[in-house]
Amino acid sequence: EPDPLYEETRLRENSVLGSEKPFAWRKLPKAADRCTHLWAATLSADLPIGRHVVTVEEVDMFGKVHLAQREFSVRKPLR
């Protein structure tokens, strides 16, 4: 899926520019159909309350391994 922040920025720019021409700057290009720098995953619905770490490992086109970790917390519902 496209990068949602980029798409929002592009749509906002188009609404500001409207149909005015010539533009004072170059318009942003159309967002790519597939964003390669954002990752999404489905987490288990029964994760225990507390701190957890998600690890992402990626191998680039040169075979180099990149590893990233992010901590997140599961809290009890507010209700």
End-to-end gap: 33 Å
Strand content is 25-35%
Computed over alpha carbons, the radius of gyration is: 19 Å
Question: What strand line-up does the widest sheet have?
Answer: 1-2
Number of helices: 1
**Can you give the mean pLDDT?**
82
- Helix % is 10-25%
Total beta-strand segments? 2
Quaternary structure of the protein: single chain
Structural class: alpha+beta
**Which regions are unreliable across 5 or more consecutive residues at pLDDT < 50?**
none
Order of helices and strands: HEE
Shape: flat
Question: Major beta sheet, specifics?
Answer: 2 strands, antiparallel
Number of domains: 1
Give me a quick take on this structure.
The chain has 79 residues and is an alpha+beta fold.
Provide an overview of this structure.
- About 20% of the residues lie in helices and about 25% in strands.
- It has about 80 residues and is α+β, with helices and mostly antiparallel strands.
- The chain has one domain (about 5-75).
- Strands 1-2 form a two-stranded antiparallel sheet.
- A hairpin with a 5-residue loop joins strand 1 (about 50-60) and strand 2.
- The two termini are about 35 Å apart.
- The mean pLDDT is about 80.
